[in-house]
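To the wet lab folks,

You asked to see what we're planning to order before we commit. Fair enough. Below is the target structure as tokens, and below that is the sequence we designed to fit it. If anything looks off to you, flag it before the synthesis order goes out.
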């Protein structure tokens, strides 16, 4: 049986629709229920509904054979998994943002507030910019407004929150989207079945 970790929420619903479209349906998953595990014996599949930030953990540890995760979480966690396919869902950008009119003082370390410290550090290391990372878990936009940071590194979808707080994008770091990932051992033992999923999904993604 193939175990599939789906992120809870809107992205998970879109991803399930994609699996359903290639023949991996499990009707019970659409029922009003608090269940987290859904099995379709006929299709030989099992869906696990998990917190988006935990998908890579379930896949890396082998509790799930494959899963779908946002590339922001995947890149931040440096998980030891195979990335199989960009699903072109949940598309947005990882950006550096600052207060309107902000100018960088290169003589000082840049104070960077972010939920993604590894991603931020990796980027600024690549341009040899000294930084001080301030790890936050929410309301990142407050940090520059209160003088706690010079810039933020965060996901930007529409830019509405930035605009509403007198902030703007300074630099786009990378494109973010949902990625299909696989446990390395599972991919070796279930390669034919997983490759079939990748092939069928890719046909839909490319349409």
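Sequence we intend to order:
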């Amino acid at each position: 049986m193939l175990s599939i970790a789906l992120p809870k929420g809107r992205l998970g619903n879109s991803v399930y629709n994609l699996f359903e479209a290639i023949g991996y349906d499990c009707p019970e998953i659409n029922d009003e229920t608090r269940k987290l595990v859904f099995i379709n014996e006929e299709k030989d599949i099992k869906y696990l509904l998990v917190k988006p930030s935990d998908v890579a953990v379930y896949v890396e540890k082998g509790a799930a054979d494959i899963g779908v995760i946002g590339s922001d979480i995947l890149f931040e966690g440096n998980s030891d998994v195979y990335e199989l396919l960009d699903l072109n869902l949940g598309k947005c950008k990882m950006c550096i943002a600052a207060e309107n009119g902000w100018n960088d003082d290169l003589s000082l370390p840049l104070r960077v507030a972010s939920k993604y410290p590894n991603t931020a550090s990796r980027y600024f290391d690549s341009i040899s910019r000294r930084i001080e990372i301030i790890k936050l878990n929410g309301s990142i936009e407050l940090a520059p407004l209160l003088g706690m940071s010079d810039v933020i590194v965060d996901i930007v979808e529409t830019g509405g929150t930035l605009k509403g707080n007198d902030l703007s994008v300074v630099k786009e770091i990378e494109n973010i989207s949902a990625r299909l990932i696989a446990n390395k051992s599972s991919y070796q033992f279930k390669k034919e079945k997983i490759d079939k999923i990748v092939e069928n999904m890719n046909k839909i993604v490319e349409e």
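Structural context that might help your review: Residues 191-205 form the longest helix (15 residues). The CA atoms of residues 185 and 191 lie 10 Å apart.

Thanks,
Computational group
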